[in-house]
Amino acid sequence: MPPVISIQNATKRFGQKILLDAASASITDDHKVGLVGRNGAGKSTLCRAILGDEELEKGEVVLHPKTRLGYLRQHDPFLPGETVVEFLMRDSEQPDWKCGEVAARFEIKGAMLDVLVGSLSGGWQTRVKLTALLLHDPSFLILDEPTNFLDIRTQMLLERFLKSYKGGYLIVSHDRGFLKQTCNQTLELSRGKLTLFPGSIEQYIEYREERKQHDQRVNAATKAKQKQLQTFIDRNRAGANTASQAKNKQKQLDRLELIAIEEDEANAYIRVPQVDPRKGTAVRCEELSIGYPDKIIADGITLDIEHQARAAVVGDNGQGKTTFLRTLVGSLEAKGGEVKWGHGTEIGVYAQHVYSSLPANDTVEDYLLSARDSSISHQQVLAVAGSFLFRGDDVQKKVKVLSGGERARLCLAGLLLGKYNILILDEPGNHLDVETVDSLCEALEDYNGTVIFTSHDRYFVRRIATQIIEVGGGKVTHIPSDYEHYLYRLSQEIDDEDAKTAAGGDLSDSDLAREQRKKRNQEARAARKELNKVESKIAKLDDERKALNERLLTLTDPAEAQKVRTKFTEVAEEIAELEAKWLEYQELLEDFDG
């Protein structure tokens, strides 16, 4: 079978770093390939080279003449004020009925097609982009981190689609569970070289370890044989009767070669300081209501989380997982009821809104040294920095020049260098490669404090969670089953929806969850509209405030000046009220996106 993609001696540098070093691989149209490698190894660069968007210094990428590549875009290709169906029709030049037919594969139906695409959460926007991708009728797909922003339900939908897809695809992902479900080949990019293995990611990791151990055993036996031969040669080379034997042994020794074994790339070293183990209730929620000033997300929440538990907070995007965590730690005020933390709890938080609070002028090293527990050495701090991809001169970068992803990693590294007996983690595995996620899992498994976390990475949740808290339908509850039963239930719900669709059922009218999502999309649009109004009014009042201030500088009449000062104060107070309202709407929209 001729390859659809042939990578031939591809070479590419980025500054002094070699990303591709005469790398070669061939992919046929029936290959379902998972592309893996460390962060910064060059996976996205390779994808761009395949697409023709990145020039190679040497070598080439040869596509079969009939290959039609489809690429899942990471940027947002939407226009302001564009609905889902309008975007799909514009992007694909297909009629509305065809767009609706393909969109239905990802549960985009009925009223959802007329929603403003810009008001959708990241997960739903990814569904829209996948629909647009399929409307171009590609023969081979390239998906770069397709599970970003996707909740578990949407990941399952994507998995089902990929399993039924007749063409081949190349998927870049750090999500080991997703790769295991969707890929039958593994392509590793390491030290500039490509290795294609005919098996899943787990099989490849097992094979790679077995091969390394085999080579080490062979080398050990070879070294023993070399030592034995060298001893014989040393003893017998000078003897008249044994010199010829020694010469023959020397020839044998010269033929023996050790297998070249590459040293492992530097692995993450993540250490969570041990804390005094505690027993009893870590946190108790009593008739708790969560939400925003003009919106309740969930109410009647009554549950306990015990010390040393590792509680996974699960649920579809937009149902309130982040709102629940923020209310637990007090960064969002409860709408009703109360949260009671146990005595002596020290809480460390990893969440998106924390990134902006990092000291802008600190270097990476400065921040981590200030965040560490006193029991952690300077060298250990640098090791942890390296495990989170801050290596060499990167530790001297200032926070203000870091990207959002780099700030997220720095925040997590700082948290894990502290000494907290409660960790609140919102998607801690984002921005981490497979090996670093493994190291984080090991650290959290050994940690004797309490962990309350959200994650869309099923591998991570399976390894860490000891109990499940579900957020959805306006409620937050412990669910009696384990994570595997939760995933099974989601799969059954998707099966039921597929069966209804096959039978001609109108899920947009009959399915409660769909109606809830539709309602939340409408609320998000309304909130965004109000946010725009507030921003416009703030801008006008700010202009008025500046004009009043300029006028005050020129007035000489005390009475007139007092009137202008009074008006200036009124305008300033109104701006302050509007800014508070702007913040409320902004937080509400963040919840819709989470």
The first-to-last residue Cα distance is 44 Å
Please give the order of strands in the largest beta sheet: 5-6-7-3-8-9
CATH H-level homologous superfamily name of the domain at 281-479: P-loop containing nucleotide triphosphate hydrolases
- How many helices in DSSP terms? 18
Mean pLDDT across the residues is: 84
Strand content: 15-25%
Largest sheet: 6 strands, mixed
- CATH topological fold name of the domain at 281-479: Rossmann fold
How would you summarize the topology of this molecule?
Elements: E1 5-14, E2 17-27, E3 32-36, H1 43-51, E4 58-63, E5 69-72, H2 84-92, H3 96-103, H4 122-135, E6 140-144, H5 152-164, E7 168-172, H6 176-182, E8 185-190, E9 193-197, H7 201-236, H8 243-255, E10 281-292, E11 295-306, E12 310-314, H9 321-329, E13 336-341, E14 347-350, H10 364-371, H11 378-387, H12 404-416, E15 422-426, H13 434-446, E16 450-454, H14 458-464, E17 467-472, E18 475-478, H15 483-502, H16 507-510, H17 512-552, H18 558-593
Parallel strand pairs: 3-7, 3-8, 5-6, 6-7, 12-16, 12-17, 14-15, 15-16
Antiparallel strand pairs: 1-2, 1-4, 8-9, 10-11, 10-13, 17-18
